[in-house]
Write a structure and sequence with these properties.
mainly beta; single chain; 16 strands; 185 residues
Length: 185
């Protein structure tokens, strides 16, 4: 189990804001909001280095099977990017999700058990085979709720934030069936 212990509050003053975070088993990687840069941190969040990128990436995840990163672009939600460990572009892949047309991606995660990508938009979460990106399965439609990101947990579940009148975190199995709701005061 990963545990970060600090005597004082953790402050990341070196960057103005970040959107995405990935962990490869050794290091954390944060995408810098509105900059073409990804910053590398150790498990205590001491900055180790940074990578200049050709694109302003927002959300990012690590794929331990292909030893690569998957990322999204702030401007274009019709594609995702496959990046190597130096954040150089390996592939730019087009995606088409009819239920999410015109919506921006707000989260991406890779599950190593199923070897699938989970992508969230404000109104829908989809599961995609990374080798056939247009073959997707809708796991959750939000109706009048807003989805805030997605991540896989314990390799068998996905976790995502929901907001309406109350903030909630939902935990579902990989097929989308709801397992638990956690209300946030």
């Amino acid at each position: 189990m990963l545990r970060v212990e600090r005597k004082e509050a953790l402050e990341l003053n070196a960057i103005q804001g970040f959107k995405g975070i990935a962990y490869d088993g050794n290091w954390f990687y944060l995408t810098v909001e509105n900059e073409s840069k990804i910053i590398k941190y150790d498990v205590c969040f001491n900055q180790i280095g940074s990578f200049e990128t050709d694109t302003c990436y927002t959300y990012i995840c690590y794929d331990s099977i292909d030893d690569c990163f998957w990322a999204t672009d702030r401007e274009d939600s019709s594609c995702i990017y496959k990046l190597n460990e130096s954040f150089e572009l390996l592939a730019k892949l087009s995606i088409s999700i009819p239920d999410a047309l015109g919506r921006k991606i707000n989260g991406i995660s890779h599950n190593y058990i199923s070897d699938k990508l989970f992508i969230s938009f404000s109104n829908v979460i989809v599961s995609m085979d990374k080798h056939s990106l247009n073959d997707c399965n809708i796991l959750y439609r939000s109706g009048n709720k807003r989805i805030h990101g997605v991540t896989d947990i314990f390799s068998s579940y996905i976790c995502y934030g929901i907001s309406r009148s109350k903030q909630e975190i939902h935990i579902s199995c990989l097929c989308g069936n709801l397992i638990k709701r956690i209300h946030i005061p």
